[in-house]
């Protein structure tokens, strides 16, 4: 039998979450973000589902990610959010009908010298206050002049990113929106489009929706807000992470368990060894007490997570046996452990956990 660790990917959940995007921003076009292997869900498969569902465009972080989609037969518009990293990427992007998001005069200089086989679409990135990437508002006229001198280039519009969209009441969001809007007003007669909102703003800041929205983590059923999990926002987790019991051990009072003897039994206990670990992407910092599902019931992890295995408490599950399914993220019966819950315990964000899931874990598509 092959190793039982699998990531289950639900097509139905993905399509449901896309509908939540569309219902939340009904007047905006959708640029679905599938960078970082679709947040660990499998970019080619996810992009194919989204393309068939009619998304207006896809977004990735690099040329390599974009070419992977094209080589798999994805024909939808694809934009590279960080633009080119070297000059030779620009002709390749044009050849494969890939759009670019440009954020620096250096990239504009590369574009001006590029020999393009076909036209190329670009967005300009405006730094509205996040101070990560983008042209300062005062530099935008010069950027536009440089762009107009580039033959075969079609400027789609302006794009920016909110630094505090996960805090909808924070005044800094209004500052960024005002900066973006005031800058765009100077270009209102040029037929350009605007894109500002990602998942958090899609859900709670409708004044930022504009012409394009760029959903990422919400497509995968994860919450962008620290105080609420995805299901409370009407989202359905797309990924479930499961494995199985390899063996069952009996501990006596006083027995130590695993690396570093990180857990000591205070009574007689049944302990299951599960075929998953940090080598698969399950966080090593999770351990004693972390919820896990076995037999449709909540149990807990014991001791440290090792590279390929971890321990689960079976003391209240007397019939559990080798081969039984163990759900690390997902639903089993009426119980559920969400990635949002695990991220809170790990002191991180949910999409870091899905991005961690390694390539050796097969992604299995479910309806």
TrEMBL record:
**Catalytic activities:** L-alanine = D-alanine
Q: Write down the superkingdom of origin.
A: Bacteria
Is Membrane among this UniProt entry's keywords? no
| UniProt entry keywords in alphabetical sequence | Isomerase, Pyridoxal phosphate
Pfam families annotated for this entry?
Answer: Ala_racemase_C, Ala_racemase_N
Q: Which CDD domains match?
A: PLPDE_III_AR_proteobact
Q: Which cofactor does it need?
A: pyridoxal 5'-phosphate
Annotated catalytic residues: 35 (proton acceptor), 259 (proton acceptor)
Q: Give its E.C. classification number.
A: 5.1.1.1
Which residue positions does N6-(pyridoxal phosphate)lysine occur at?
35
- Alanine racemase C-terminal domain: residues covered: 238-366
Binding of substrate occurs at 132, 307
User: Under which pathway is this protein filed?
Assistant: Amino-acid biosynthesis; D-alanine biosynthesis; D-alanine from L-alanine: step 1/1
Cited InterPro entries: Ala_racemase (IPR000821), Ala_racemase/Decarboxylase_C (IPR009006), Ala_racemase_C (IPR011079), Ala_racemase_N (IPR001608), Ala_racemase_pyridoxalP-BS (IPR020622), PLP-binding_barrel (IPR029066)
The protein's GO terms of the molecular function aspect are: alanine racemase activity
HAMAP family the record matches: Ala_racemase
- Please give the PANTHER family that the UniProt record associates with this protein: ALANINE RACEMASE, ALANINE RACEMASE, CATABOLIC-RELATED
Q: Which family does it belong to?
A: Belongs to the alanine racemase family.
Q: What does this protein do?
A: Catalyzes the interconversion of L-alanine and D-alanine. May also act on other amino acids.
Q: Please give the name of this protein.
A: Alanine racemase
Organism of derivation: Thermithiobacillus plumbiphilus
